[in-house]
Design goal:
The structure holds two protein chains of two kinds. Chain A is α+β, with helices and mostly antiparallel strands. Chain A has six helices and nine strands. In chain A, strands 1-2-3-9-4-7 form a six-stranded antiparallel beta sheet. A three-stranded antiparallel beta sheet of chain A has the order 6-5-8, with no helix packed on it. In chain A, a hairpin with a 2-residue loop joins strand 5 and strand 6 (about 165). The relative contact order of chain B is 0.09. The chains are: A alpha+beta, B mainly alpha.
């Protein structure tokens, strides 16, 4: 089996900076859950954020700022509470996704797309980016298609192949308009479940291609 | 890697960053001297009495906040980071008053969760940056920023046998700042637009009138430069 395909550093930097959309950030965090190396890279990029804060010009704090803060030391800080991760979650569901979904694999409501494919639409972001789950039956081929807009696909269960490249759990595929005749073939052993972010700014274009594009309009 | 001593000692602010090996202490003949000097050797954990607290590293101050709810240590951290956090938050677009409130919130989070801060794994500035980022996103978006380990701002990011890189981080406040100056201006620009304005690749491309691929490659190069300068990666 090939080494897993890991995310590139411009995404690590933007994730650390807080510059990713919620959907992209969830995809990166979920991907990082599989890979200590990616977590370390994120951590290093966040150290850059820390250094930039260190290098900031100081601005004046208001009079009595420290005392004002001390008077509410024991109050809960809005937004700092942490959502509980669902107590029972599937061991093979990455924690960031489990926290976001708040449900197990079995509780997901899959909608058929035909040709052995089904999906769960999750959200559409402010710039039209779509976050969704894709499930493909073991052994099926996804209809040949081109990409018109960036699409990031994270494998979580099962696997697929594109040419000689193998994508297993934790692997991330980034496909854009430079890739054409994209023909993923799902591994024989197990259904494949992926977390996908499809950018659809002006002309929504799907991962799956024209044949099933109408089904993706979330 | 010679990092053993780095696990227990972090550079103080100012120039006195040298690590004092224990053997030096034993070589001292003057017992009175040895006694009075002993607290300055921080390789044995926290000193018995506060020496000049201003000489203590931020990371050590945070550890004191966690262990003792030490208000003097907390005040020093607030005086240093409060104005910088506020500045950062104003840069992100918050008005003065709100930026100050959020800066206070970040420091309160440190007070309340200081025990989750592990100086072996990150500089304090990294931890505070992460808290500020998440808090700002809480305020300005509908959703929390997805994290790998949401319950732990540092997370258990590295297993025990991989802690060298994280441990070094405690030493690298100065190094990171110096590394930033090694960036080409156009690399620094995309880093700043990412961290100071939270612009996406597409937004940066639009702002700077650059192809998307150029923005991405500059961000990758910038990260490479910083990595190399910091020696975090092999």
């Amino acid at each position: 089996m090939n080494k897993p395909v890991l995310i590139t550093d411009e995404w690590v930097m933007s994730y650390a900076a807080g510059a990713l959309s919620d959907s992209h950030a969830l995809l990166v965090a979920t991907h990082a859950w599989y890979h200590p190396e990616v977590q370390q890279r994120i951590s290093d990029a966040e150290a850059i954020g820390g250094a930039l804060i260190e290098a900031r010009d100081e601005v004046v704090m208001s009079q009595g700022s420290f005392d004002a803060m001390m008077s509410r030391l024991n109050e809960p800080v809005a937004g700092s509470e942490v959502a509980e991760i669902a107590e029972v979650r599937d061991a093979d569901m990455p924690a960031p996704l489990a926290q976001w979904l708040g449900k197990s694999w079995d509780e997901l409501k899959w909608k058929k797309m035909g040709a052995g494919l089904s999906r769960v639409p999750l959200q559409v972001g402010p710039d039209g980016e779509k976050l969704w789950l894709l499930k493909a039956k073991a052994g099926v081929s996804i209809p040949i298609h081109d990409h018109n807009g960036l699409e990031m696909t994270l494998v979580m269960k099962g696997s697929y192949k594109v040419g000689s490249q193998h994508f297993g759990p934790g692997s991330l595929e980034v496909a854009d308009h430079e890739i054409s005749d994209h023909l993923p073939v799902i591994g024989e052993d197990e259904d494949c479940i992926c977390l996908v972010v499809t950018e659809g700014n002006i002309v929504p274009h799907s991962f799956i291609g024209k044949m099933i594009r109408p089904f993706i309009g979330l | 890697m010679e990092t053993a001593s780095l696990h227990t000692d972090h550079s103080p602010r100012g120039s006195r960053g040298a690590i004092h090996p224990l053997t030096n202490q034993r070589l001292e003949c003057d017992t009175g001297y040895q006694r009075s000097r002993a607290p300055r050797l921080r390789s044995q954990g926290r000193p018995a009495r506060p020496m000049a607290i201003k000489d203590v590293s931020f990371e050590e101050l945070a550890v004191r906040v966690a262990a003792d709810k030490d208000q003097e240590a907390f005040r020093l951290l607030f005086d240093h980071f409060g104005p910088r956090l506020k500045s950062h938050l104003m840069g992100l677009g918050l008005p003065d008053r709100q930026a100050e409130d959020v800066a206070q919130d970040v420091m309160i989070t440190l007070w309340q969760k200081a025990e989750k801060y592990d100086p072996k794994k990150a500089k304090l500035s990294t931890w505070l940056f992460r808290v500020a980022r998440n808090r700002f996103i809480d305020l300005t978006r509908k959703q929390k920023y997805p994290e790998v380990n949401a319950d732990d701002h540092m997370g258990h990011l590295v297993s025990d046998d991989e802690t060298d890189a994280g441990a070094v981080a405690g030493q690298q406040r100065v190094a990171v700042a110096a590394a930033l100056t090694q960036l080409k201006p156009n690399q620094r620009k995309v880093v700043e637009l990412s961290f100071f304005e939270e612009l996406s690749h597409g937004q940066i491309a639009e702002r700077l009138q650059l192809p998307l691929g150029t923005v991405k490659s500059r961000l990758r190069l910038a990260f490479d430069v910083l990595r190399r300068e910091l020696g975090v990666f092999q």
